[in-house]
Design brief:
The chain is mainly α. It contains 18 helices and six strands. It has a two-stranded antiparallel ribbon. A two-stranded parallel sheet has the order 3-4. Helix 3 crosses helix 8 and helix 10 packs parallel to helix 12.
């Protein structure tokens, strides 16, 4: 079943000619806002209930509209009703026009009463908020799963020592567990950042009309409660022209993607032959068309690359909104493709990243071997001298000289003879080797870090 009614909601005696077919195609948002059909029908049902309860239309008319809308929803979801007939000139202007025209075709003149006391301006603002709240709930669940995955993997590797890096140079020893939990903290912030944004978005614009409200005695609170909103938009101008919520959500998603991209960059490095800290499962790797030995981290690379799409979506929304006077402007139609792409891209990347992380193999021995190189216990050696009374800057210089000597002789701090230590300072004794043992370096830091934690009573 196709909807072939191409009349526009705004066509009336004001216009003496029909719209140019090319302009219709350019103007139409149906090719992308069709995905709001469920939300648009929800909003229309809530509006029809309110109109009936407020006696703006009769209860019978309200019930007829609601039955018609439910029938449209069933037919869309079953595939009986499609959004485009195939001829461009038959394309509806948007999802709102499509559903209202279909409703009127099914139930007659009563369908034309649905749009009483509302505008497409408050309608689309309400639709989009409902849609994004649902999508943010789904993304938060994915973030929960990711954090659980990180926590489980971290617990397995609480004693797996690896080099920690600054400037991509080996710096100090850490555990793989601590490295993973750094990302846990990032995604935890993302989770609550999106939660906060969803909370702020829970204001209902329905009833704001085109910009100035309506002269009908409507019950905005009834509509808002029916749709699950917590509050009403207080200012009608702001209610229809606000897209802060879309920008805030896309900003939050950009941070999620930035964190995924950083993690993917490390995964790409770690599974290279130069590191070999991990190996990705075959299901989440690809090969080369010409080099049979290759096992490429394409999923991680794609996620890293797709982060740029979400950043661009955020920029699109900012640039779209920056020069718009109040209230609604057609420019705001461009918000849909940007926010839809940001949501879709983030969800898809999380859905790929989580099982890739769950199935990777950790090469603990390679991490440990790497940690023994690069003098990453040099700070602990300096701290050893400080604890015996030497000023830190002097200790820093002494250990720097020792490291220089070790490099010349191809030695490590662990196997440098005690007499060589004592040539630089008589504070060195046999216990230096205990102080610079990698396990002790990590354990001592973890112990002190734990002691410094603040218990969260909430």
């Amino acid at each position: 079943m196709n909807n072939n009614n191409n009349s526009k909601l705004w066509e009336s005696g004001r216009f003496s000619k029909g719209i140019n077919p090319a302009v219709n195609d350019f103007n139409s948002s149906l090719p992308f806002d069709w995905r709001l059909y469920n939300e648009d029908i929800q909003v229309s049902i809530a509006h029809a209930k309110m109109l009936g309860a407020c006696e703006i239309i009769t209860i019978d008319e309200s019930e007829s509209i609601i039955a018609g809308l439910n029938g449209i929803l069933l037919d869309i979801e079953s595939g009986k009703l499609t959004f485009v007939s195939g001829a461009s000139q038959d394309m509806a202007e948007d999802i709102h026009s499509f559903i209202e025209a279909e409703l009127t075709a099914r139930i007659g003149e009563t369908g034309k009463k649905l749009h009483t006391a509302r505008s497409r301006n408050d309608q689309v603002a309400t639709d989009l908020r409902i849609y994004l709240r649902k999508e943010i709930t789904a993304i938060r669940k994915l973030l929960e799963t990711l954090m659980k995955t990180l926590s489980a993997l971290s617990k397995k590797h609480e004693k797996t020592i690896m080099p920690g890096y600054t400037h991509l140079q080996r710096a100090q020893p850490v555990t793989f567990s601590k490295h993973l939990m750094a990302y846990y903290e990032m995604f935890w912030r993302d989770y609550f950042r999106l939660s906060d944004a969803a909370e702020r978005m829970a204001e209902c614009p329905l009833g704001c009309g085109a910009l100035a409200g309506t002269t009908y005695e409507i019950d905005r609170k009834m509509s808002a409660e029916e749709l699950g909103f917590y509050r009403l938009c207080k200012n009608t101008l702001d209610g229809v022209s606000d897209r802060d919520f879309a920008i805030e959500i896309t900003s939050g998603l950009s941070l999620v993607m930035m964190h995924l991209s950083r993690f993917c960059e490390e995964i790409i490095l770690w599974c290279s032959w130069e590191f070999r800290f991990i190996e990705l499962d075959d299901e989440y790797s690809t090969g080369s068309s010409i080099m049979p030995q290759k096992k490429n981290p394409d999923i991680a690379e794609l996620i890293r690359g797709k982060s740029s799409r979400v950043f661009a979506d955020l920029q699109t929304l900012f640039v779209m909104m920056k020069g718009l006077p109040l209230a609604y402007n057609k420019d705001m139609q461009e918000d849909k493709e940007a926010i839809f792409d940001a949501v879709d891209t983030t969800k898809t990347c999380l859905e790929m990243f989580i099982p890739m992380l769950e199935t990777l193999k950790v090469n603990s021995d390679k991490m440990r071997t790497a940690a023994t190189k690069g003098f990453i216990n040099a700070t602990d050696c300096a701290d050893y001298l400080v604890k015996k009374g030497m000023a830190f800057r002097d200790a820093y210089k002494v250990v720097g000289e020792i490291v220089g000597y070790c490099i010349q002789k191809d030695l490590d701090l662990e196997n440098l003879p005690l007499e060589e230590y004592q040539k630089r300072s008589n504070l060195f004794s046999d216990d230096i080797y205990e102080a610079i043992c990698l396990d002790n370096c990590v354990a001592n830091r973890n112990k002190r870090y734990t002691k410094g934690e603040i218990k969260n009573e909430t």
